[in-house]
Amino acid sequence: MTKTVALLVGSLRQQSLNRKLAKALETLAEGRLTFTELNIGVLPHYNDELWDSPPASVLELKETLKQADGVLVVTPEYNRTYPGVIKNALDWGTRPWGDNSWSGKPAAVTGTSPGAIGAAMAQGHLKNDLLHVGAIVMSQPEAYIQWKDDAYAEDGSVTDEKTAEFLKGFVNALADWIEKHG
Ligand code: FNR
Predict the structure, then answer these.
(1) Helical pair 56-67 and 84-93, crossing angle rounded to 10 deg
(2) 76 alpha carbon to ligand 1 midpoint, in Å?
(3) N or C: which end of the chain has fewer CB within 10 A?
(4) What is the rounded average pLDDT of the residues 18-37?
């Protein structure tokens, strides 16, 4: 049966390479996983006082996470770490005290950049922080993707055979991880 994945994309750009990568991964999962993207760009900056009358975006984030079997974060690297928009979502998810939405969720991280290290430092920092908030983080396989335009078609499908094989291995490992720990 298909498992549901709450997807966080660390870029707010319409033409985000990371969102294209996420779409490619969902396609390569061939129905084992269905992604629901969290709208993290509309979350206000974290402020404890907002819990007096919680914003709809925050409640939606927490409800989507509650329903999801697992979590996937696809992140670019900004100045050698992951973007603040993801950290803000992590913080909202951990509150209110005693209702941590990340706790016990099977989770994986990948990301892409045109740069040679494929968002590796961002992914390392993010895995560390996901562990801290209580997610069950998949450590292997790692997927540091250096973006190559000629490996993907306009519709997000992967045209390069080796890239497709590698990404398929990653997304199947995530599906196995969710089945094991979900
Ligand atoms: C970047 N970029 C970048 N790339 C990288 O490999 N290491 C880095 O530290 C940074 N730093 C950085 C900072 C800021 C503020 C921006 C805007 C960009 C490049 C970045 O990875 C590239 O623009 C990606 O294409 C962004 O991902 P999306 O938006 O295409 O998903």
Answers:
(1) 80
(2) 6
(3) N
(4) 97
